[in-house]
Every structure is written in structure tokens, then in C-alpha cells.
Design goal:
Elements: H1 2-9, H2 14-22, H3 26-158, H4 164-179
Helix pairs in contact: 3-4
Amino acid sequence: MNHLLLLAAAEGGPVEQIAKTFGANVPALIANAISFTLVALILKKWAVGPIQTMLEERRRLISEGLANADKTKAELANAQAHSQELLNQAGLQANKIIEEARAASAKISEVERQKAVADAADILAKARQAGDAELVRLKGELRKEFGKLVVAASARVSGKILTFEDQQRLAEETNKQLAA
């Protein structure tokens, strides 16, 4: 800056000629330069500096927001894939449980059917035994009655009274003929 002052002070120098041509006042020009520099420094410190800091903070927040949005999108896609996988697994498990229930139901039905068949066979066997016992009882009664009728008929035909031995013999002969 001293150079400029020296050049400006020198008479007839190029700077003086330019200053005369344009009508410049060197001390006013220097004062304006100093005040411009002071205003620029003040604006930088209290106006432009905070604005730039705020803009940088906004840029940082926006970039963080975009990064978080991308991260959230990725997490959402991952969560959807995971939920779809869980739904698929649940569907497979449900199908497996249904198949197991059907198999168990078929097995239980088969067991119950076999029980019912066994119960029916048991009932039929008991009915046959009861029928056979009833048949034996009725045959015994029929033989007694038939024996009595044969004895009574023989007594009427022969016209004599049969003794107990005769009645026994006739009953035995009749039973032998019936059994054959």
C-alpha cells in the first residue's frame, strides 16, 4: 500500500495522470477502500458467516435425511421380505398341521371302524351263543315233551299203564331216533 501512496504522491507519475483524467481523489479512494474492507469483514463475520453455517447445517441435515430415507426404504423392503417369508412359513406349517390332522382323523376313523367291527362281531358271537343256548334249551324241552307225548301215545295205543322203566326206555329210544 505504501507503493501506491508513493506513486500517487509523485507528481507527473502515471497514477496522478489517471487520477486527474478520471477525477479521482486518492485520500477519498483510500478511505472508501478501507470502509469497504471493514463492511465486508463485518458482513462476513455477522451476516454471511452465519448464513453459510446455517446452509451447511441444512445441507448436512438434508443429506442425513436422504440417507435415513434410503436406510428406511431398505429396512422396509427387508421387513416386507421377512414378513412374506414368515407368511410362507406359516402357510407351510398350517398345511402340515392340516395334513397331520387329516392323517390323525383317518387313523382315528380306522381305529373306531375296527372297534365297531369288533364290537359288532362280539355282539354277533354273543347272540349266536345265546341263540345256541336257547336252541339247546328248546331242544331239551322239546325232547321231554316229545318223550311225554310218545309215552302217552304208547299208553293209549297199548292200553296198559307203563311203568317208570318203560317210560325211560321209550324216551331214550325216541331221543336216539331224533338225534340220528
